[in-house]
Amino acid sequence: MMSKMNLPNKLTLFRVFLILPFEILLLGGNAGLFGENTLFFNVAALAIFILASLTDFIDGRIARRYHLVTNFGKFMDPLADKLLVCSAMIALVELERIPAWVVIVIISREFIISGFRLVAADNGTVIAASYWGKFKTAFQMLMVCLMLVNVPDVQKMWPWLDGLTSAVMWIALALTVISLADYLIKNRNVLKEQK
């Protein structure tokens, strides 16, 4: 396993590690565990989320450019993305900033695609990431960023932020459904194949 720990893989693991301080700052800060300045902890959580999201962009670039793509990276990179975004959205449900049903739809999509990929892999088929999936991930990350700072203190300064956050949420939700349909339609023969 140690031979697989190149820079892109280390960045992927770092992204997973960042989930813990992100959750502590977001949930602990909003629960008043660290004082009354909840805006500070929302911004700190946002900074960690942005840093983690950037590692997603950077590790893939490095892996492709320097031919450092590994099986470990192929497995962990999308898993790290799902863990980061889903844990953030679940925390936002706890803080009542996103409806639970939206998160259920998004997480259900991830389970369906993961199961679909397992069946495909069992049949010797590799399902590549689609542009719809990449757009979906980008808008989900943007949605989380907006929801992290969409608090009363910020809304007073930027009253348009609430509307923008809602619009991005609906776009992210639409892309979630579209990307799911795209995967299933393009790879519908996977379920018909017999081993």
Structure description:
It is a single chain. The protein is mainly α. The protein has one domain (2-188): Four Helix Bundle (Hemerythrin (Met), subunit A). The protein has helices at 7-17, 19-30, 38-65, 71-94, 100-122, 131-149, 152-157, 161-186. The model has no long low-confidence stretch (mean pLDDT 89).
**What is the percent of helical residues?**
over 70%
Task: State the CATH superfamily name.
Answer: CDP-alcohol phosphotransferase transmembrane (TM) domain
Number of helices: 8
> Major beta sheet, specifics?
none
Kindly name the structural category: mainly alpha
**Count of discrete domains:** 1
Approximate strand percentage: under 5%
Look at the structure and give the CATH class: Mainly Alpha
Written as H for each helix and E for each strand, in order along the chain, the element string is: HHHHHHHH
Shape: globular
Mean pLDDT: 89
Summarize the structure.
The chain has helices at residues 7-17, 19-30, 38-65, 71-94, 100-122, 131-149, 152-157, 161-186. By secondary structure, the protein is mostly helical.
Comma- or semicolon-separated keywords:
mainly alpha; 195 residues; 76% helix; Four Helix Bundle (Hemerythrin (Met), subunit A); globular
How are the secondary structure elements laid out?
Layout: H1 7-17, H2 19-30, H3 38-65, H4 71-94, H5 100-122, H6 131-149, H7 152-157, H8 161-186
